[in-house]
Write a structure and sequence with these properties.
Largest sheet: 2 strands, parallel
Low-confidence stretches: 90-96
Number of helices: 2
Order of helices and strands: HEHE
Radius of gyration: 14 Å
Strand content: 5-15%
Strand order of the largest sheet: 1-2
Mean pLDDT: 85
Helix content: 25-40%
Length: 96
């Protein structure tokens, strides 16, 4: 499953706001926020395959007062990329 790329280091351009990956991340976050805005109050389930470090969905949810209505499952193969549950995440959040 290793093609010679470090799947953890691959994410480092996200820290440069001008990088193509950072611009793409902002666009994805805008789409996620828009989808949640279009469905106010409705429960939403999210499954993110190859979730990486989860910056797309987790950053959006961290900024929203209605985040608790979202059930998110992030699936990531590289353990260094798997987000660790923090205080902003539900007690059900876990990494396996």
């Amino acid at each position: 499953m290793n093609d010679g790329k470090d799947c953890y280091a691959w994410h480092s351009p996200y820290t440069d706001p001008g990088s193509p990956l950072a611009r793409r991340l902002r666009l994805v976050q805008q789409h996620i926020a828009a989808l949640l805005d279009e469905r106010p109050g409705e429960p939403v389930s999210v499954v993110s395959m190859c979730a990486g470090q989860g910056h797309d969905i987790l950053a959006v949810l961290a900024s929203r007062p209605d985040a608790r209505r979202v059930s998110a499952t992030l699936i990531e193969y590289e353990p260094r990329n798997a987000p660790r549950p923090g205080p902003e995440q539900s007690p059900r959040a876990s990494t396996r």
